Amino acid sequence: MIPAALIEALAEARHVCVLTGAGVSAESGVPTFRDAQDGLWADYNPLELATREGFSRDPALVWRWYRWRRELVAGVVPNAGHTALAELAGMLPRLTLVTQNVDGLHQRAGSADVIEFHGNLFVDRCFDCGRPGDAADEELPRCEACGGLLRPGVVWFGEAIPSDAIDRAFAAAADCEMFLSIGTSALVYPAAGLIDIARENGAVCAEINPDPTEQAASVHFAVAGESGRVLPELLGLLAS
Ligand code: OAD
User: Fold this and answer.
1) Whose CA is nearest to atom 36 of ligand 1?
2) CA 8, CA 126: separation in Å to the nearest integer?
3) pLDDT for 34
């Protein structure tokens, strides 16, 4: 299942960079984006809600959707894959965890210093001035500083990745000796481009996903499996 050469590369790496996507949270019960049968997008067009235009058009609808997602995430717990990644950090000289997920489950599993490439579902900030706010349970929460509407602190389509996140993630991808892409369809850039930076800098690249992605042909190891099962197995092999 997991090649010995992958474990050897992991054991020898001075710096490992990990990118996770919605697949890592799937086993906690959080729908992914593109899995048709139960994906978040099965019932609506993401461009209607996860964009500045969608929010301007109907902020109450967007808040209803994000509040539904907040309740869903608040009701689940990290799974064995999250826990394994938190433990892996303590077994390696250096691990940088970059996540596209906004659910905060890596942090709840004990991972520190997580780079949230697409922001965080539970952060509120002003749509107009960008200052942090507290939406509480207001249907249309407003910024105390400028009176603008508050919005969820996630990255929407067409929006820039937070500059500190992109700088730190790019630096880690360029510096690492091993890059693990876990539970992501590798379709959304610039996150999906991190593995290319790593590979161009000589890193050993691997993906963990039940379904091979488009990057499967260009990684050194494509491990077919669910992260909640593969990651604990990987830790056991690394420890032995
Ligand atoms: P996707 O829904 O695009 O892809 C989920 C991936 O997880 C797929 O490749 C599945 O095969 C895989 N998967 C499903 N179950 C899994 C499991 N148990 N273990 C491991 N992998 C599993 O989600 P992302 O790749 O995260 O961006 O999507 C990337 C971005 O697209 C999201 O961050 C979001 C969306 O636009 C923004 O919100 C800006």
Assistant:
1) 188
2) 47
3) 76
CA dist., res. 225 & res. 23, Å (int) = 11
Q: Considering only CA atoms, which of 5, 4, 2 is closest in space to residue 233?
A: 2
Predicted structure pTM score: 0.96
pLDDT tens-digit readout, 193-222 = 999 999 999 999 999 999 999 999 999 999
Please indicate, yes or no, whether residues 125 and 239 belong to a single structural domain of this protein.
no
CA 132 to chain centre: 22
CATH number at 43 reads 3.30.1600.10
Domain span holding position 105 = 1-29+77-118+161-240
Residues in the ligand 1 pocket, defined by CB under 6 Å: 21-23, 26-27, 32-35, 50, 100, 118, 155, 183-185, 187-188, 209-211, 213, 226-228
Considering the domain architecture, whether residues 99 and 217 belong to the same structural domain is answered as: yes
Closest ligand 1 atom to residue 213 Cα is: 9
14 and 81 share one domain = yes
Same domain flag for 64 and 140:
yes
